[in-house]
C-alpha cells in the first residue's frame, strides 16, 4: 500500500461510480487493484496503445507464454479495461480456430 493508493481509488470510483460494492467486498477489490498496479510500470496504456499490440498479445497467450512477464502493461490494461479484454478474448478465439 503506497503511492498507488490514490490511483487505485481513482479506478475504483470509475469502476463503480454511484454503485459502490458492499463494504465487506471493497477491501478485497481494492487489494486486487493494488496487486494489478504492482505488476506494472508507472505508466498506464491507453486503449489505442493496447489495440496496436493486442494481436501480438493474444498470440503470446495462445502460445502459452506468460503475458504478465512479456507485456505487463497490456496485461494490466486487460485487468482494468473490460472493453479491451473482450477484444482480446475475441482475437484469442480467432487464433485458436485458425492457427498460423
Ligand atoms: Zn482499454
Number of strands: 0
Low-confidence segments: none
- SSE arrangement, N to C: HHHHHH
Fraction in beta strands: under 5%
- What characterizes the major β-sheet? none
Distance between the termini: 43 Å
Q: Supply the number of helical segments.
A: 6
Kindly provide the radius of gyration, computed on alpha-carbon positions and rounded to a whole number of angstroms: 15 Å
Nearest-integer average pLDDT: 79
Considering DSSP H and I runs of 4 or more, what fraction of the residues is helical?
Answer: over 70%
Give the class from helix and strand content and strand pairing: mainly alpha
Polypeptide structure, described:
The protein has 100 residues and is mostly helical. The protein contains six helices and no strands. The mean pLDDT is 79. Residues 47, 50, 77, 81, 83-84 line the site of zinc ion (ZN).
Key words describing this protein structure:
100 residues, mainly alpha, 2 domains, 74% helix, 0% strand, elongated, binds zinc ion
Structure, briefly:
The protein has 100 residues and is mainly α. The chain has helices at 4-16, 23-38, 47-62, 67-70, 72-80, 82-97.
Topology (SSEs and partners):
Blueprint: H1 4-16, H2 23-38, H3 47-62, H4 67-70, H5 72-80, H6 82-97
Helix pairs in contact: 1-2, 3-6, 5-6
The protein binds zinc ion.
Zinc ion (ZN) binds at residues 47, 50, 77, 81, 83-84.
